Amino acid sequence: MLKIRMTMLMALLTLFSGLSYATEVIDRIVAIVNDDIITLSDFNKYIVSLPKQTVEINKDQALNDLVEQMILTQEAAKLGITVTDAEIDRSIENVKGRLDMSDEQMNEMLNKQNLTTEQFRNQWRLQILSGKLVSTLVKGRIAVTDEEIKDLYKQYYGEIENADEVEIAHILISFDASEEQQALQKANKVAELAKSGSNFSKLVSEYSDDTFSKDKEGVLGYFNKGELVSELEDVVSVTEVGKTSGPVKTISGFHIIKVLDRNTLDESSLDQYREQLRQEIYKQKVTEELEKYIAGIRENAYIEIKL
Asked: Is 97 a residue whose pLDDT tops 60?
């Protein structure tokens, strides 16, 4: 009897030992940042939330982003900067209001991005935290001059009399890397229907994967030069009002684009867009300052990559 019990005990020890080893392998450390760690499960959760095309391009960059997020979090903690759940709730509700997005649409968007509510809120917390940290670090140190606003205006619009803004709608056919050919065939079919005169709004309702614009007949709004990704801007710039082009491939999928309106800007448009341009320049300067700040912290931080 004693021998049997000892045999069973040894078997159990072996089993639990194997389970412990498996856990270590599954959740091993992939990076150390000062006194904190990033585990493989942390990394995998982050990877899952990214567009598949981005992940395939550069997993090293994804890990580097996680390291920088941890550095920001550590620095915010040193400065006593925190984000409450109430602040996250208010911020999310404000964005939903601006985008006219329902809770159902928000949940659908999270599902498409493979994000749980907890992961989404953690990402949002980090965004607010970064904003607070930036405000603390650069407050009063960044100014935008009228000359900078005029220069950016010229970059966007060139000669004022030739500048314009364009209103577009689209149908998005999204895809995983393994399904690109099938998605392209579907996009070609939808594009052919749109170009042959089929009701664009009905095609949006039936085929588009974009939850943001689907309930708005695919309308994305007005865009100035430089605001669209280059693939879309190249096509939109040569498409006449009322005409449809595409499919055009971007990181989001295949787009069938319809140009709804085009407005020519005049001299007074500088004042119309002054605040928008000022904000853009300010954000760019803030980004540059934050990158310098993070680079300085990284030089003095202990960082070990184990992936």
From this structure: yes
